[in-house]
Amino acid sequence: MSIQINEVPTLEANLLPVHIKYTGPANTKDYFTPTKAYDEVANTTSAYFRGCKLVGNEVKLPENSTAYIMNKHETMESAPETPQGYRTVNNYVPEAQFKSFKVYGQDTPIPSNSQWFSMSEWNDISDIIHE
């Protein structure tokens, strides 16, 4: 299996503690603008989303790693060996890439034991398994 990822734009990724029941495009520049109020002591960035204060910490991906925002598209293809005569194929198309992202908590930073801060541990485990 080979994977080829064409050149995609690099962006600043943000993970917000909200659930929005909408899957289409969003003009986030009108509703989410990091204030860039950076607190050097706490190492956090403050932002506001529709009036709610959010406090974010940067999570860096492991060295030499890149994350991608992907869109999934399903297609049908002929498969005479199946009872239906076809099968569903999932295609993933990269839309953007990033090397780090900010994880926001409501009013306070997320706890340091959050799943998002354990990414480097998972990378270390993967390296050990695949040695």
Could you please describe the fold and organization of this structure?
The protein is mainly β and 131 residues long. The chain has one domain: Lipocalin. Helices cover 11% and strands 44% of the residues. It is built from two helices and seven strands. It has helices at residues 28-31, 119-129, and strands at residues 13-15, 32-39, 44-49, 52-60, 67-78, 86-98, 100-106. A five-stranded mixed β-sheet has the order 1-7-4-3-2. The model has no long low-confidence stretch (mean pLDDT 84). InterPro entries: RNase_H2_suC. It holds the Pfam family RNase_H2_suC.
Nutshell version of this structure?
This protein has 131 residues and is mainly beta.
Largest sheet: 5 strands, mixed
The CATH architecture can be named as Beta Barrel
What's the CATH topology label?
Lipocalin
**Tally of helical segments:** 2
Number of strands: 7
Amount of beta strand: 35-45%
Question: CATH class, anyone?
Answer: Mainly Beta
On the 0-100 scale, what is the average pLDDT? 84
Q: Helix amount, in percent?
A: 10-25%
Radius of gyration: 19 Å
**Which sequence of SSEs, written as H and E, runs from N to C?**
EHEEEEEEH
Poorly predicted spans = none
N-to-C terminal Cα separation, in Å? 20 Å
Tell me the domain tally.
Answer: 1
Shape: extended
Strand order of the largest sheet: 1-7-4-3-2
